[in-house]
Amino acid sequence: MFESNIKFSDLVQVFVYGTLKPGEANYKRFCAGKVVDVKRAFIQGKLFALPMGYPAMTLGDGQVYGYLLSFANPAILNRLDVLEDYHPARQVSENLYSRKTIEVYQGEWVSLGWAWVYLMSLEQVDQLGGVLQPEGWWSGSGITAS
């Protein structure tokens, strides 16, 4: 029987709410074959659909629904940073998204711990013509929240 030497604490966890969700446009290219665990989850924030065909999330008091993806290789963050136009050495205003850690939940606010998430400033969302998604779910491929 195969036993993994990966410890849970070694995993890199990323909360995804847009094109990186299973079944969406960028999942296969960036996540398939690299994810070791997937959980439906939510975080606190506000979700916006952008006219370019992908969403943005800001901090806020709503709920944003998506998936908590766990990766064994921390280098995944470098690949995702490129996709999300984020570079830690650049000024905040020069990045499309910022990468932050945020608490992730399941069910009735049961904490799943902390994970990376890509956030956009409300100013950027406004400049890009973002439309609030009050239900907290986005899909470019027609996948429903239930």
Strand order in the largest sheet? 1-3-2-6
- The proportion of residues in beta strands is 35-45%
Q: Topology as H/E string? A: EHEEHEEHE
Shape: globular
**Rg over CA atoms:** 15 Å
Share of residues in helices: 10-25%
Summed up, the helix count is 3
Sheet/helix structural class: mainly beta
What is the residue-averaged pLDDT? 91
Number of strands: 6
What can be said about the biggest beta sheet? Answer: 4 strands, antiparallel
Low-confidence stretches: 1-8
Question: What report would you give on this structure?
Answer:
The protein is mainly beta and 146 residues long. 12% of the residues lie in helices and 40% in strands. The chain is built from 3 helices and 6 strands, in the order E-H-E-E-H-E-E-H-E. The protein has helices at residues 27-30, 76-83, 122-127, and strands at 12-16, 35-49, 55-71, 98-106, 110-119, 131-132. The strands form 2 sheets. The chain has a 4-stranded antiparallel sheet with strand order 1-3-2-6. Strands 4-5 form a two-stranded antiparallel sheet. The protein is globular and about 35 Å long. Residues 1-8 have low confidence and may be disordered.
SSE diagram, text form:
Layout: E1 12-16, H1 27-30, E2 35-49, E3 55-71, H2 76-83, E4 98-106, E5 110-119, H3 122-127, E6 131-132
Antiparallel strand pairs: 1-3, 2-3, 2-6, 4-5
